[in-house]
Amino acid sequence: MASTSRTRTRRGRGRGRGRGSGSSSLPPPPSTPPLIIEEFFIVVYEDPLVKKALPKKFADYLDGQEPAKVYLRAADCGPHLWTVEVLFDGQGRMYLDKGWENLAIVHGVDFGCYVHFKYEGDDVLTVKVFDGTMCRKYYYSDDEDTDDESDDDVKPCIHPL
User: Fold this and answer.
1) Count of beta carbons in the 10 Å neighbourhood of residue 117
2) What ranges does the record give for the region Disordered, renumbered to this chain (predicted)?
3) For the chain, what is the radius of gyration of the CA atoms?
């Protein structure tokens, strides 16, 4: 029995020393990584053709570099970029405004759609549209790949499959 009480006493003293001394065997907490927002989505709950609010975290990411417009590229639809004006409300919110409605109409953005954005840098966002069943909408271009067509003749992907 004597050995049992000595063990308990030793354990108790060992725990007390570590707590009160301020020294810890735990590593310091990791530093906060930089805020990097590359991908996000919005859900279309209201009129799909009116300005759309982007996540506040994304607006915060662009703080100090707030563009007057962004360029949206529908994923897998070639080089066509949709120019969309951007509004900031002064309270940290960012909205897609004029130009958004054109992309929304052409790519079938409707109530209940999920729109996925990937920030590519240089004010370019790649866009993927998912319908209300969470399945991606795919589009194709009318253009045929021929040698005599230039990039100036590229049409946006406008026809849903």
Assistant:
1) 21
2) 1-32
3) 27
Q: Which domains does the chain have, with CATH numbers?
A: 39-142 (2.40.330.10)
For residue 111, what are the contacts with CB-CB under 8 A and spacing of at least 6?
44, 45, 46, 48, 132
User: Computed from CA positions of residues 106, 108, 113, 115, in that sequence, does the dihedral angle turn out positive or negative?
Assistant: negative
Say which DSSP state 153 is in.
G
Rounded Cα distance between 37 and 59, Å, is 9
Beta pairing partners, 117:
40, 127
* Distance of alpha carbon 103 from alpha carbon 42, whole angstroms: 15
Rounded Cα gap, residues 113 and 124, in angstroms: 21
Whole-model pTM?
Answer: 0.66
